[in-house]
Task: inverse folding
């Protein structure tokens, strides 16, 4: 099954075989990722084969089964994109913005106007099943324990943290987002919430092609990108360059009540901040077709990110008991210099005489240099304290390699197997520097609060999965084995830890296709894990500021997750409804806690409280909920998509010494797409997340509205885009936290109401999307 406009395969299309005499249903199938399909043997006779996929015209072909020809090979069946007549102008339909496939949701980013001028973080804010808070933390169905891939490769460990890496990827360089909520054994076992795979753009069209984009945002926000490719014969060369220079302002307040040794200590704090980040990134590579069945690719991707600097001015009133309050004014400064370089090579081999047989291999290397300085100075004389700095230096080397092989077993069965290895070394230093004299730029190194560490991480994995189809039923089962060895050492004999374990992770999926209304039912199961990060295990305090630090626990162990999903999809006329029930059980759950460090508070000998943040394995947690997505065209020029989820999270302590928690929460996303003229597209997006309970607090509900439009110009050679994010400036973070003898409220507000104007120019055969299909479309699955 191919796209008639470009020859690309159409995966997960519906194929049904109908009797020619009365159009009654006989059998059905679904195309694979390469567009191929097979239908079970049927009786001799004449049939009508019908193929459908949203965004394309239905394909039909007469088929005759005879004694002399019991099997029929149809060859290529090409489906043209749908065409809508508007005022005498033919507008060709394109792939939908959100496509539900058998095992994942695919979001086509070029159709999403609400991320114009933004980064991967902004793109993920409009992805079904995904939530992003204003600090850039990504979560799925209430958990931030997810795996983020970039072009199918891990992005977290070797990138200085997933959140940091996502802020460095401009939205304009992303082609699509794949969301897998219940991954099979083919995927890494890490990530309880699922897998997000970010696919970067890489043109393969003949000749010279490319695009140039420039965006300007309110209050000093600028970004630009340039991408190109040149294909001649067997060789395709591609590249891109992206740059950002952004200023973001923030303000926050804090009210903290703590009882230390029977005395109440109160802190009221206000702060304003300015974050100035500059980022430059590039990507260059080539694809070479060795033969029609063999290709190789090489890619090099450097990135440079600087915070220059980020400043926070704070004013606090500190009160101890009935004493008069003391005014404390501070200035915090953070500078960052992070450099990464990624090199990868890929090989693909197919066999023309055996469709579905495929061998792929890839290898990659990542190098990261990070220098981060966090400092604080006291700018008033009422509290006699010296300023301090923390100088972090991190050096990471990471290697990975993977081989995957797919082999068809008859017409309706397939076997997949693969091996993967990852090796990483992480060495760093943390020098804690204390000011020698107030108002003097001289510091000495505090050896007791400084340290150096080395961490080595090795993961070896292998998997095998099998697929089989019988009539309208399809089955998939798999088993993955992973061996993990993590060793960490604080130099000088100040602490070490080691994790060494072998686990197996089964997965299974059963699906049934029902011809009436193009319905699908699917049930799936997978077992997964969440490995603790080395910073969660490092047994030394890392200070976020003068009164807060984080300390690891070497005894922390992985958490294990059992995940179940049951999904249903139905198409009725122009409307598509997808619903999913899910249940997730986490054993040995890793939770974050805070407590008062009474000893450090006493030694500080000033008003205020020293708080310690730590992690521990905390019994069992469960999540039970439902998701629904409705796509309903309301008019030829107006389409509405609604995505909602409602789920209950429960945390049960293993020892009974901590309070258990239960929380009913949910999310709602409304996306309106308007096409008032053939050249103009408008999107209005609304997001809402209900309140969430944590083991020691509560996150208040939050919502926002975004508005964007795009107008195509110069015979579709250019496009002008306008966007206003958080129209009503409602996106903010409100947190209530509590523990023994401690209670606090935090209100954080980053600059989220931002206006952008962007201009894009396309050359070669590249053009802006001509039609925005903003709603999820049926195509075979429920994101898992």
Result:
């Amino acid at each position: 099954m191919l796209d008639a406009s470009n020859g690309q395969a159409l995966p997960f299309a519906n194929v049904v075989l109908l009797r020619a005499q009365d159009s009654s249903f006989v059998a059905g199938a679904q195309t694979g990722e390469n567009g191929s399909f097979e239908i079970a043997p049927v009786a001799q006779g004449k049939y009508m084969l019908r193929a459908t996929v949203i965004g394309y015209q239905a394909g039909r072909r007469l088929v005759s089964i005879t004694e002399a020809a019991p099997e029929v090979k149809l060859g290529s069946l090409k489906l043209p994109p749908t065409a809508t007549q508007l005022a005498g102008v033919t507008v060709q339909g394109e792939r939908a913005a959100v496509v539900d496939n058998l095992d994942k949701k695919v979001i086509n980013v070029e159709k999403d106007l609400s991320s114009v001028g933004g980064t991967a973080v902004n793109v993920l804010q409009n992805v079904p099943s995904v939530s992003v808070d204003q600090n850039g933390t990504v979560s799925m169905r209430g958990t931030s324990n997810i795996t983020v891939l970039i072009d199918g490769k891990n992005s977290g460990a070797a990138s200085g943290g997933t959140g940091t890496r996502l802020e460095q990827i401009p939205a304009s360089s992303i082609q699509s987002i794949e969301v897998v909520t219940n991954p099979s054994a083919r995927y890494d076992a890490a990530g309880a919430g699922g897998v997000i795979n970010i696919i970067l753009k890489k043109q393969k069209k003949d000749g010279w092609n490319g695009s140039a984009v420039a965006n300007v945002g309110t209050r000093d926000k600028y970004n630009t990108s340039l991408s190109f490719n040149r294909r001649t014969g067997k060789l395709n060369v591609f590249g891109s360059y992206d740059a950002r220079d952004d200023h973001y302002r923030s303000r926050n307040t804090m009210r903290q009540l703590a009882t230390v040794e029977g005395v109440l200590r109160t802190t009221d704090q206000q702060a304003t901040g300015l974050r100035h980040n500059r980022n430059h990134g590039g990507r260059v590579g080539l694809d070479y077709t060795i033969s029609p069945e063999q290709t190789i690719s090489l890619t090099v991707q450097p990135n440079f990110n600087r915070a220059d600097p980020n400043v926070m001015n704070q004013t606090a009133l500190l009160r101890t008991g009935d004493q008069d309050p003391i005014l404390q004014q501070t200035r915090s400064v953070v500078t960052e210099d992070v450099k990464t370089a990624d090199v990868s090579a890929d090989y693909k081999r197919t066999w023309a005489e055996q469709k579905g047989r495929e061998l792929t291999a890839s290898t990659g290397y990542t190098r990261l240099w990070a220098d981060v300085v966090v400092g604080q100075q006291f700018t008033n004389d009422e509290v006699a304290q010296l300023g301090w700095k923390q100088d972090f230096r991190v050096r990471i080397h990471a290697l990975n390699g993977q081989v995957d092989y797919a082999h068809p077993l008859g017409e309706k069965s397939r076997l997949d197997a693969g091996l993967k290895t990852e090796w990483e070394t992480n060495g760093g230093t943390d020098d804690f520097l204390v000011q020698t004299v107030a108002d003097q730029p001289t510091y000495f190194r505090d050896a007791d609060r400084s340290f150096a560490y080395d961490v080595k991480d090795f993961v070896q994995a292998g998997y095998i999965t099998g697929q089989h189809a019988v009539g309208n039923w399809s089955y998939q089962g798999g088993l993955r084995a992973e061996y993990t060895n993590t060793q960490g050492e604080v130099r000088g004999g100040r602490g070490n830890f080691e994790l060494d374990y072998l686990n197996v992770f089964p997965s299974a999926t059963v699906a049934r296709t029902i011809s009436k209304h193009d319905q699908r039912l699917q049930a799936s199961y997978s077992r997964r894990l969440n490995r603790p990060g080395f910073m969660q295990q490092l047994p030394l305090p890392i200070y976020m500021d003068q009164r807060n630090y984080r300390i690891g626990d070497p005894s922390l162990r992985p958490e294990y997750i059992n995940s179940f999903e049951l999904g249903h999809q139905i198409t009725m006329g122009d409307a598509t409804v997808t619903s999913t029930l899910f249940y997730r059980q986490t054993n040995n759950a890793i939770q974050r806690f805070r407590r008062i460090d009474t000893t450090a508070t006493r030694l500080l000998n000033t008003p205020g409280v020293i708080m310690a943040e730590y992690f521990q394995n905390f019994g069992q947690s469960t999540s039970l909920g439902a998701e629904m997505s409705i796509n309903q065209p309301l008019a030829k020029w107006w389409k509405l998509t609604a995505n909602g989820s409602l789920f209950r999270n429960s945390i049960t302590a293993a020892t009974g010494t901590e309070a258990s928690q239960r929380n009913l929460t949910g999310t709602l996303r409304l996306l309106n797409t308007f096409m008032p003229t053939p050249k103009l597209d408008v999107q209005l997006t609304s997001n809402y997340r209900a309140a969430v309970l944590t083991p020691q607090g509560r996150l208040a509900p939050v919502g926002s509205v975004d508005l964007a439009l795009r107008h195509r110009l110069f015979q579709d050679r250019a496009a002008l885009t306008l966007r206003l994010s958080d129209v009503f400036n409602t996106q903010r973070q409100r947190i209530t936290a509590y523990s023994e003898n401690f209670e606090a409220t935090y209100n954080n507000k980053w600059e989220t109401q931002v206006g952008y104007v962007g201009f894009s120019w396309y050359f070669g055969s590249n053009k802006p999307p001509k039609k925005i299909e903003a709603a999820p479309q049926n195509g075979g699955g429920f994101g898992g």
Observations:
- Confidence is low (pLDDT under 50) at residues 83-95, 157-163, 771-784.
- Helices lie at 120-124, 162-167, 534-537, 598-604.
- The first strand starts at residue 2 and ends at 3.
